[in-house]
Design a protein that fits this description.
This protein is mainly α. 39% of the residues lie in helices and 5% in strands.
Length: 156
């Protein structure tokens, strides 16, 4: 499999993480069939095209922590986007027992779609594994509050 295929599988898996759920970099790598490539998942997300709507903010580290330094603009943005979906961030951590996404079935489909596409065997109507453009701005969590109106911990 080429790095382009792996990148497309990662995009498709990340795009499949449901709103209100999170996955870890390692979980995405494992589901993609490359369990030792968690850092590659992070690198792939770091280099998303401008304006991508891929829900990068739903990916956290293996401890459930946001990857950015607390108080930094990307950290604040990730907190806001997660809070807008009802995910609670305490300090810099998300409770994986509560919010972890289980995407096993999606992983098999993503790999089949990409491998089939590159072999010329993809069925028509299958979703394209490329990140879409433009992400809607969250309407809640402005000023550091959750959708329920409580403060978002960890924001400076």
């Amino acid at each position: 499999m080429t790095s382009t295929n792996l990148r497309e599988i990662i995009w498709q898996l990340v795009g499949s993480v449901l709103a209100g759920k999170v996955a870890s970099y390692g979980q995405i790598a494992k589901l993609a069939g490359y369990p030792s490539h968690a850092r590659y998942v992070g690198t792939t997300l770091k280099h998303l095209p401008d304006g991508s709507t891929l829900p990068w903010f739903r990916i956290v580290n293996s401890k459930g922590e946001l990857a950015f330094p607390p108080g930094s603009p990307p950290f604040t943005r990730q907190c806001e986007l997660l809070a807008a979906e009802g995910v609670t961030v305490l300090g810099k951590r998300v409770d994986l027992r509560r919010y972890r996404w289980d995407g096993t079935e999606v992983a098999v489909q993503a790999k089949n779609d990409i491998v089939g596409k590159t072999n010329g065997n993809a069925s028509e109507g299958k979703p394209c594994a490329r990140p879409a453009l433009r992400h809607a701005q969250p309407t809640s969590c402005q000023g550091g509050t959750t959708p329920a109106g409580g403060p978002v911990s960890g924001l400076r």
